[in-house]
Specification:
The protein is globular, with a radius of gyration of 22 Å. The protein has 24 helices and nine strands. Helix 23 (391-403) links the parallel strand 8 (385-388) and strand 9. 54% of the residues lie in helices and 8% in strands. Helix 15 (233-249) crosses helix 17 (278-289) and helix 22 (364-379) packs across helix 23 (391-403). By secondary structure, it is α/β, with parallel strands linked by helices. The chain folds into three domains: 3-100, Alpha-helical ferredoxin (Fumarate Reductase Iron-sulfur Protein, Chain B, domain 2, Orthogonal Bundle), CATH 1.10.1060.10; 116-300, no CATH class; 303-428, Rossmann fold (3-Layer(aba) Sandwich).
Length: 429
Amino acid sequence: MTIKSYIDNVKDEVYKCVHCGFCLTACPTYLVSGQELESPRGRITLMKATIESEIIPDLNTFAHWDRCIQCRACEPACPSGVNYGLLIEATKTGMNEVRSESFIYRYNLKIILNLLISKWFVNLNALIFRIYNKLKISQLINKVKLNKLLPKKINELEKMIPIINGFPLKSGNYPSGTNNKFKVMLFRGCVMPGIHGDNMRKTIYLLNHLGFDVEVLDNEVCCGSISSHNGDSDMTLKLAKTNIDNFLQNESKYLLISSAGCGTRIKEYNHLFNKNSSYYNKALLLKEKTMDIYEFLYNNLPFKPEGNINLTVSYQPACHLINTQKIIDPPVELLKMIPGIKYVELPSSNICCGAGGAYSITQPEWSKKVLNKKMTEFKSINADILTVSNPGCLIQLQNGIQESSISSDIMYVTDLLYNSYLKGEKNES
C-alpha cells in the first residue's frame, strides 16, 4: 500500500478543505514560521497533490507533515469541519510504509515508541531522574561549565529532564472510607504514574474526599496516542482492544482521565474500527463511560474548597482538552472556586505549548520555537503560578520556565485544589 492509498482512503476529508485560511492563526507551527507549508492548509495541499499524483512525496514533503504537533487547534477554527486529526494520522501511517529511511528509520522509531509506552522503562527513567535531581547534577554541570563541552543535542536533552514528583503510583483500590457514592477507575497512562506520582495521589485524595472510591487497574496499557501520532496503526489497534476489554469488564461507573491526550485517544477509539466491527460498538460504550478528571470534578463538587490561596494564577489548557473534547470552562471555574486566587488569563492560551506527546523529542527545534513564544506571553502577565491539565504540558512548560529564569511555579489545577482542601481541613481542626 502506498502513501497515496492511505490519504486516498480519507480523501472526503481532504476535499472538505476550501483553503479559507481560518486555520492559520490557530496553528502554532505557522505562527512561529509564517510558512504556508507549516500550516494545516499547506499540509492538506500536499495531501491533495499526492492524491492527484501531482507529486511523489519525498523527505522534504514528509518533513512538513512531521512538523505538525497534532494539537488539532485547526479543527474548531475550520468552518468546513475538516477532521484534520484523521487526515494527519492516515498520512503518518502511509509515511511509515514508504519513506526512504525505510527499515532503519521505522525500526528505530518503533523501538523508541515501544520504550516510551513501557511502564518499566518510564519508572526506571523516573528513578534515574530522581537521583539526578536530588544530587543537583544539572547545577553542577552548569557551574563547572561542562555544558559548553557537551554536544548541542546532549545539552538540549539534559535540559529536558523532568522534575520527579514522588514515587510511582501503584495499581490497587483506594477507598473513600466514608460517605461512599460509587467507584471510579483512574487511568494512569504512561508518563504520569512514574514522573508525577504525587500529583496522581493528590487527585485520588480529592476523589476520596468527595466520597468516591478509586480503582487503578494493573492491566491497563498505553492509550495508543503516541503510536497513532507516529503512524503505527497496528500498535494503536492492539492497545485500544486491550483497554476496551479491560475497562468494560470493570464494574466502576466511570473511567477518569488525568491526561488530555489519553482522554481524546480513548474517546476516539471508535474511529479506529470499521462500523461493522464489534469493537466499534464497544468503543462507543467506553466513550460514554470516560470523563476527563476536570469535567468530573466540576460536575461533582458538593462544596467549595475553603483553604485560602493568596496567589495570582493563570492557566494553559491542554490542546486535546479544548480542541477535541471541548472541555473549556471546568478547569478555570475550579480555579476560581479557590478562595484568595486572583485569576489572570494567559494571552493566546488556546495556542499549543509545543509538547505534543513525543513531539518535543522527535521535533525538538520546532517544539522549542513554540515554547519560547509561550514563555514570552507568560512573562507579560506576572503570575505566581501557571496551571496545566496535562502531564506533557507541565513538563514542557517547566522546562520553559527554568530556561527563561522565570520565578513562577507550574502546577496541575488539581494540585491547587488539593492544597486548598487540605488547608481548609487544617483550619477546621
